[in-house]
Amino acid sequence: MKKITEYGFISSKKDEKLIIERLNEFLAPLKRTFAKNKSDSYLKGYLPYVYKYVYFNLNKDVGTFMELIPNEDIKDNYKYPDNKNVAWIFRVFDFIRV
């Protein structure tokens, strides 16, 4: 079973670099970083939203997968249209091992 938690960062698109820096600082003690994924086959998993790229981190030791995705895609569609002040969505997938 996996648990998914989403957080919306009230920010602008321009805050992308700062957000990634802060997330990487958080992961630094674990010697982990976020990677940018531009792979078409990977991004198809987000349809109907069309993104140029997403950020992710997989930590098998801890059992988590984290990603940072934009709220607005390249076709001006919002994942959360009622929260347009949220530019970035941070999702954490916890894989509970049995």
List the helices and strands and how they pair.
Blueprint: E1 2-10, H1 16-27, E2 35-37, H2 40-43, E3 54-59, E4 64-70, E5 86-95
Antiparallel strand pairs: 1-5, 2-3, 3-4, 4-5
Percent of sequence in beta strands: 35-45%
Radius of gyration: 14 Å
What does the largest sheet look like? 5 strands, antiparallel
Q: Strands of the biggest beta sheet: in what spatial order?
A: 1-5-4-3-2
Poorly predicted parts: none
Question: What is the CA–CA distance across the termini?
Answer: 8 Å
Query: How much helicity do the residues have?
Result: 10-25%
Separate helix tally? 2
By DSSP, the count of extended strands is 5
Mean pLDDT over the full residue set: 91
H/E element sequence: EHEHEEE
In one word, what is the shape? Answer: globular
Secondary-structure-derived class? alpha+beta
Give me some keywords for this one.
single chain, alpha+beta, five-stranded antiparallel β-sheet, globular
Describe the structure.
The structure is a single chain. The chain has 98 residues and is α+β, with helices and mostly antiparallel strands. 16% of the residues lie in helices and 36% in strands. The chain is built from 2 helices and 5 strands. It has a 5-stranded antiparallel beta sheet, with no helix packed on it.
